[in-house]
Amino acid sequence: MAHALSTLKLPPLLQRILRKLRILPTLPPSPIQPGESVWLYNNIGYRDAATNRWVVQFICAYFYRGTGKDLAKVVANITTMIGLAPGADPTTEQTIANRVQPFLDTILEGKTVQVAFNQAGDGGNENQIFTLGPGGSHGVSVNDVFVAGDWREGNVVRSRAIMPGTGESSGFQSCSLINFETRFADQEGWAVVSDIDDTIKVTEVRDRLSLLRHTFVLPPETVPGMPEAYSRLNSLLSAPPWFYLSASPYNLFPLLSAFVASHYPRGQLLLREMSWQELESFIVTITMGTQQYKENELEVLIKNFPKKKWVFIGDSTQKDPEAYAAVYRRHPTNVRRIWVRLVKGVDVQKEKELNSKERLEKAFKGVPREIWSTFEDPEVLTNEVKVMVAADAGRV
């Protein structure tokens, strides 16, 4: 039966379902082809503690181009009719369709892509070609690759995926994110982890209708005062590497990467893989199981940068306090400071519990009081960072 089915020209989504049910065999690795898209994340290179060589983690997502386009337009029309975007004009409907489409495009398993790393030969270092992948069951590949070169803290290089076709005429620029940056960070100095939703971007995750509006309908909105605060932090901490750790699914990468690049210090986005290619799992992904997910990602960062002085910034809406505190208890010499933004005005009843002294003291049990604090006004965050930096300088 499997052999008979494999000889048929089945729609990509049906093929994927049959492979998931193990009716069709798993695809062998294969290079990306015309009609297929790839997203490449900006990333941060680090020195491997064992070899002292530079390592870069490449994260890629692979899709069949435009397979969800028509359905995305239907979804946009439905969201208007049910009141998610009341009175939406054609421009708003197109915005909704564009944001929904990455959830509906059929993902690609087993794909590989070549990248031209350091395409311009920056810093006197040679261009290098790497093959990334294959993509896993969620259409995402993660590859840790040793890169040659005499790199220094803060060096930034630009790279590009090598796609089928010839440059601009190949048509990939409109559907793929094939250009990316790598910033190199040594083991010493500061590093910052920041949540995104309701820490630096207004999302209102505690109100599901507002969550959907902010994600799929409204222009991305910064939390007031946070862009200025992060700019000052970036200066006070001598331009540290930034990691934006979010429970948002990777399908939102185009939206969130553009948002961060427009308003905040450039850094690496760490986004969650969705369990299955269905839009309704979005709310589950962003609101459930976030603590363990974030703890796992933070453990990897500390493993890769064991000598960094880590600063964690999050908010009170989900499990940032619990996740950050748990990692501190395991790595008290690595994690120097934790800040939690108290979110108010979304779900007043729930916020009484989430922002309560009892909740926070329970979350941070065993964590010294001088390590963690809360804030509402970003200016408080800036002032406390100044105190932290001065105290650290006096410790040396």
Automatic annotation (TrEMBL):
Pfam families the UniProt entry points to: APP1_cat
Sequence ranges assigned to domain Phosphatidate phosphatase APP1 catalytic in this UniProt record: 190-341
Domain of life: Eukaryota
Cellular component aspect of the GO annotation: actin cortical patch
InterPro entries, alphabetized: APP1_cat, Mg2+_PAP
GO molecular function terms listed in the Swiss-Prot or TrEMBL record: phosphatidate phosphatase activity
Name recorded for this polypeptide: Phosphatidate phosphatase APP1 catalytic domain-containing protein
Organism: Ascodesmis nigricans
